[in-house]
Amino acid sequence: MKIGRLTISDRAAAGVYADLSGPEIEKVLSEFFGNGVKFESAIVPDEIPLITAALKKFADELKCDLVVTTGGTGIAARDVTPEATRPILEKELPGFGEIMRVQSFAIIKTAILSRALAGTRGSSLIVNLPGKPRAVRECLEILAPAIREAVAHLRGEDPHK
User: Is 117 exposed, middle or buried (0-12, 13-18, 19+ CB in 10 A)?
Assistant: First the structure.
């Protein structure tokens, strides 16, 4: 399986602080999918054209089965990840964002401010995650079964084998 991970952060892109959420994505998904996972990664600032270009590269050129973003899903002025993601999706999967918000709300009441979304582009599943490493793990653990099944469907495989 090939997974693209995209960290969206002005400060991480500028080198002001280390990206902790991107490596957490790799750690959690390696635990879930095993050793056969290959990761592609990028860090971009909170700019719609740069986010969109990175998502298209992961899905269209690198043919990643799964593309996971971290950061930019809140309500601050610079949080534009959903605006960069939604226009390039072919099919939106609202259940991903809904379940992340519901389950995360039980842990932190401000989780309802998240605008994370997910969907497909070609044979790639794209999922927006929050920017905090702990939230990345919590959300991926919730989504893991649906991610496995979605990727199998997009590959044309029987997800129940």
Answer: buried
Q: Which bin fits 48, alpha (ψ -120 to 50), beta or left (φ > 0)? A: alpha
Q: Which residues of 105-114 are buried (b: 16+ CB within 10 A; e: fewer)?
A: eeeeeebeeb
3-class state of residue 106 by DSSP:
coil
3-state secondary structure of 5: strand
Name the token pair of 138.
Answer: 């919590």
Beta bridge partners of 8: 44
- Beta carbons of 137 and 70 less than 8 angstroms apart: no
For each of the domains in the chain, give its residue range(s) and CATH number, in order of start: 2-155 (3.40.980.10)
Q: Which amino acid is at 28?
A: V
Q: How far is CA 64 from CA 91, 112, 154, in A?
A: 17, 29, 11
The string of pLDDT tens digits covering residues 116-135 is 999 999 999 999 999 999 99
Q: pTM value?
A: 0.96
